[in-house]
Amino acid sequence: MRPNSNRILIVDDSEAIHRDIIKILDSSKNTETHRDLDQMEMVLFDDDPMYQNFQPGKINSISYRIDSAFQGREAIEMVDRAAEETEPYALVFMDVRMPPGLNGIDTIDKIWQKHPDIEMVIVTAFSDHSWEDILLRMGPTDRLMVLRKPFDMITIKQLTLALTKKYNISVKVQNYIDYMELEFCDSDHRIGSMVQELKQLLR
């Protein structure tokens, strides 16, 4: 059973970027942020059973667990460790340029080799890699988005809410598929046993 997650990793060599994103997503410090998130939840996910009891004006807190890495290698180690501890990351904000180590594209590639379900947002002010170049490297994927610096508050909130929700829906679907596969295998085994018992009776 794969766990749901609201865990986020920020990978950037600039401490200021970490502070900015954490400040935007730390909704515990201001009720206006709560209301913004409530409204986005209602618009995006009003057909989800989790949100059927939504009441406008009522604060429904979303709590993200946010970690920081400042180089690509550090990020890879943290993602591996989180998965081993069954507390995986749902979303990673990834800078492109992080000298002197791995760049963001290489880091994403290495992370996805073992953890292909993680949602990724490339955060960059540069045009080192065009969208076409990225797709050639990564292949067509719906788990990668690009966010240009300087970014605004509402974009970060929307991306985080939508992509963590998307990750958890994916986990839910995969858990259901795994369950159904086990059920079918078990059913096949039981049917096979019953057939063998019937054959024994007919002898």
Describe, in plain words, how this protein is organized in 3D:
This protein is of the alpha/beta class and 203 residues long. It has a domain at 7-26 and 64-170: Rossmann fold, CATH 3.40.50. It is built from six helices and five strands, in the order E-H-H-E-H-E-H-E-H-E-H. The chain has helices spanning 15-25, 31-45, 72-84, 104-114, 131-138, 153-202, and strands spanning 7-11, 65-69, 91-95, 119-124, 144-148. A five-stranded parallel beta sheet has the order 2-1-3-4-5, with helices on both faces. The termini are far apart. 21% of the residues are buried. Mean pLDDT is 80; it is low at 54-60.
What is the residue-averaged pLDDT? 80
Q: Level of helix content?
A: 40-55%
CATH topology term of the domain at 7-26 and 64-170: Rossmann fold
Q: Give the radius of gyration.
A: 22 Å
CATH superfamily of the domain at 7-26 and 64-170: Response regulator
**What would the principal axes of the Cα set say about the shape?**
elongated
> Largest beta sheet, briefly?
5 strands, parallel
**Percentage of residues in strands:** 5-15%
Strand order across the largest sheet: 2-1-3-4-5
Q: Give the N-terminus to C-terminus distance in angstroms.
A: 43 Å
Number of helices: 6
Structural class: alpha/beta
Low-confidence stretches: 54-60
Q: For this structure, what is the CATH class of the domain at 7-26 and 64-170?
A: Alpha Beta
| Order of secondary-structure elements | EHHEHEHEHEH
CATH architecture of the domain at 7-26 and 64-170: 3-Layer(aba) Sandwich
Q: Total number of β-strand segments?
A: 5
